Amino acid sequence: MRRRYFGTDGVRGVANEKLTPELAFKLGLGAARYLLQTNHLPRAVMGRDTRRSGPMLGAALASGLASGGIEVVDLGVAPTPAVSHAARTGDFSFGVIISASHNPAPDNGIKFVGHDGRKLPDEVEIHIEGLMEGDLPRPTGAGVGWLHFDQSPLDAYLDFLVSIVPERLEGMKIAVDAAHGAAYALGPESLRRLGADVHVVGAEPDGMNINAEGGATKPETIAEFTKLHGCDIGVAFDGDADRAIFCDEQGTLINGDRTMGLWAAHLQREGGLNPAVVVGTVMSNGGFEQYLLENGIKLERTPVGDKYVAQKIEQTGALIGGEQSGHIIFPRRGPTGDGLVTALELLRVMKLEGKAASHYSAEYQPWPQLLVNVSVAEMDGWKDKERVSDALLQADQRLGSHGRVVVRPSGTQPMIRVMVEAQDEAARDEVAASIVTAMEQDLGGKIYSRVDLTHALGD
């Protein structure tokens, strides 16, 4: 059964246009009916990022939940992982997150997590959609859900964060770019409680500046800010703080691959990485994989997407997994990506090893990586076209163990994404050109964009 409202990461759209208060109310009512049908505790926790539309959608969604008989505890502004933490550690059966993550301010989204803090399975989202419509009876009197504001779960989340670094962070000067988002208060506060000297930018949300001036998707802001204030390291969160990227004291980017590499290598040296596995995606850099191998660590790759990373972590028992974008999961800390946890885990490694951040940004060189998006006139059977098939075969033969090709069709538009990676930049470009030429000839293709991903943040 096809989902009508839910996408790969909840319900998203321009607030008050596609994602309206009416839709938010119905989502809340459908979720309430699901909880009561399945005999779950009729209690939910809700948080949002700093978008102007957040209170509007939150009020509508909470009304839907209360109308269906669910008590709602509103945290106000809260990082997405803080809501997940509250759902799995508090007296709740459900978590509700109102955020569009790294998207611009006019967008917003609604996402549900279960009592385990994980995103709901597809079949549950489909079931909720089926309960959104229909004139079913609603409770009255004492059966109506109670709505109240309570930030005590955020205090518990902050205590949890501080516990990650028992060594504390005195003597460290840290720059933080909060993207005017959900971590604008908790991010700097967690570091200050650990004794760090914290310098902050992007902590003055006005409802419309979330992600606009910096954050994890605009690393140049934290790079310049870190150098300006002479900090030891910089960390940038995205709008809902489920991801974090870093820069060293010289402003050099430390992306998700490098973060996972230095953390895993440290634990491996300490004898604590069991199993010796890191989960990445098809976009994880070959230089990163080679670095892991040199440290006795295997890289398990998945398709792009945090849900695939989470599934592979569960299958392998890995202690870390994530993406270049800085969306990293530490399963011992929680089941989802958490930018604040990521920051503290990396800072702890720095503290324990007593090394400058620039040591880690220079530990290995990423392999040259190129992404070419090709718009095509014909998607059907693209793999079987003679020139395309030959070009892909020749690419594999040419690169061998010194590179790889990942070709994946877009799921939303007539486009094929061609990623080529090689130890040698010239070989990378020649292979990419041969594949694109074949697509131009066989599929009526035309280059839509060409992006060097060598030092980038990935998808």
What does this structure look like?
The longest helix is centred in the C-terminal third of the chain and has 19 residues, at 425-443. Strands 1-5-4-2-3-6 form a 6-stranded mixed beta sheet, with helices on both faces. By secondary structure, the chain is an alpha/beta fold. It is globular. It contains 14 helices and 19 strands. It folds into 3 domains: 11-151, 3-Layer(aba) Sandwich (Alpha-D-Glucose-1,6-Bisphosphate, Chain A, domain 3); 164-361, Alpha-D-Glucose-1,6-Bisphosphate, Chain A, domain 3, CATH 3.40.120.10; 369-452, TATA-Binding Protein (2-Layer Sandwich). 52% of the residues are buried. The two termini are 28 Å apart.
Radius of gyration: 23 Å
Describe the largest sheet. Answer: 6 strands, mixed
Class inferred from helices and paired strands: alpha/beta
- Quaternary form: single chain
Tell me, briefly, the overall form. globular
Read across the widest sheet, the strand sequence of neighbours is 1-5-4-2-3-6
Itemize the secondary structure elements and their pairings.
Layout: E1 11-14, H1 21-37, E2 43-48, H2 54-67, E3 71-77, H3 80-89, E4 94-98, E5 107-114, H4 122-131, E6 147-149, H5 152-163, E7 173-177, H6 186-193, E8 197-201, H7 219-228, E9 233-237, E10 244-248, E11 253-254, H8 256-269, E12 277-281, H9 286-294, E13 298-302, H10 306-316, E14 321-322, E15 328-329, H11 339-353, H12 357-361, E16 369-375, H13 386-399, E17 403-409, E18 415-422, H14 425-443, E19 446-452
Parallel strand pairs: 2-3, 2-4, 3-6, 7-8, 7-9, 12-13
Antiparallel strand pairs: 1-5, 4-5, 9-10, 10-11, 14-15, 16-18, 16-19, 17-18
Helix pairs in contact: 1-2, 1-4, 3-5, 5-6, 8-11, 13-14
